[in-house]
Amino acid sequence: MYSLKDLILYFLKLGTFGFGGPVALVGYMHRDLVEQKKWISEEDYKEGLALAQLAPGPLAAQLAIYIGYVHYKITGATLAGITFVIPSFLMVLGIGYAYVEFGGLPWMQGVFYGVGASVIGIIAIGSYKLTTKSIGKDILLWTIFLVLAITTFITEQEIIWLILAGGFVTWFVKAPPKNLSGNMNVFAPMLFQIQSAYFDSKLFQIGWFFTKAGAFVFGSGLAIVPFLYGGVVKEFQWLNEKQFVDAVAVAMITPGPVVITVGFIGYLAAGFWGAVVAALATFIPCYLFTILPAPYFKKYGKHTAIKAFVDGVTAAAIGAIAGAVLVMGKRSLIDMPTILIAASTVFLLYKFKNTKEPLIILAAAIIGLLLSFN
């Protein structure tokens, strides 16, 4: 039996050196904790992964929280989540400080010029992989995907009610409820939607917005990108287009959960406390969505209605990602070098499956830096 200290040290290490995004991080946990160390059973791992996919919030962080809960309950869940997120949060704080202090320098602009274009390619290939893996040949899910891709591209923001509608449509088509009131109780936690509110303090605005981001965004870490774009750039205008693409780039070049980019965004919007409030507001909902249903998930996790709902929401979220890729690409791929960097990124990730994203990001940064001196 492993100790709580062992668990903390493992997630501290994973949060510090775990590159590759949510899919890779989830894979590392299975390899390390199920196959090699045998701390977690295959059944517990699968249940944690299913709950992480069902609930809104960052996939890898929620799985880490659930794994911490398996043997050490609330204490283990809390410490696993904190130690997994803290390393990358500290990194984005440092990058945010350097970005604000030196962002006007040509060399930093050059770095993000190359990295920003590469990020578009990474998100594009990530969207492609998510689509082929999650949707397959299901006509209904493809329809939902296309509706969200088109609406996200046209409106340039993620429409939460439309994503939830995708879940309910799939539920009614694939698992028609026999007892509507009984089934509605299963989905009750997902039905409420926090409406936009106005606060005088920017920190309150940041906290409110990122709470919604943590509470209503389903899917992998990339799923939060269109939601953040709609609020951060379009609604509140805390960041401009270029700064937002740079924020996504920061998420790609740092280890740990992709969603940690909220710390960078919060820093650019309101300094240190903006970063702290954004990170807490994003991760607390996913923490609660994991530990509260955890004791009951063995009983209800395999419910056909829940599975259908998750399929529909996932298809909608992936469609929103695809739409966001088009929106950001339209604004970020501004000349031939950026187009070539993005296209090369897509080619490398598609052709060579084991290519590591951080290496591509590094190469793009060097190319952007060299171009900035010409």
Mean pLDDT: 82
Number of strands: 0
- Low-pLDDT residue intervals, each spanning 5 or more residues: 186-199
Query: What is the first-to-last residue Cα distance?
Result: 59 Å
Biggest sheet character: none
What is the subunit organization of this protein? Answer: single chain
* Count of the domains: 1
User: What's the overall geometry?
Assistant: globular
- Number of separate helices: 16
Main structural class: mainly alpha
Radius of gyration: 20 Å
Strand-and-helix sequence, N→C?
Answer: HHHHHHHHHHHHHHHH
Q: What share of the residues lie within helices? A: over 70%
Explain what you see.
- The protein has helices at residues 4-17, 21-36, 42-54, 59-102, 106-134, 139-155, 160-174, 180-191, 202-216, 224-235, 241-253, 261-291, 297-300, 304-332, 336-351, 357-372.
- It is mainly α and 374 residues long.
- It has one domain (92-372).
Task: Describe the secondary-structure layout.
Layout: H1 4-17, H2 21-36, H3 42-54, H4 59-102, H5 106-134, H6 139-155, H7 160-174, H8 180-191, H9 202-216, H10 224-235, H11 241-253, H12 261-291, H13 297-300, H14 304-332, H15 336-351, H16 357-372
Helix pairs in contact: 1-4, 2-4, 3-4, 4-12, 5-11, 5-14, 5-15, 5-16, 6-7, 6-14, 7-14, 9-10, 9-12, 10-14, 11-12
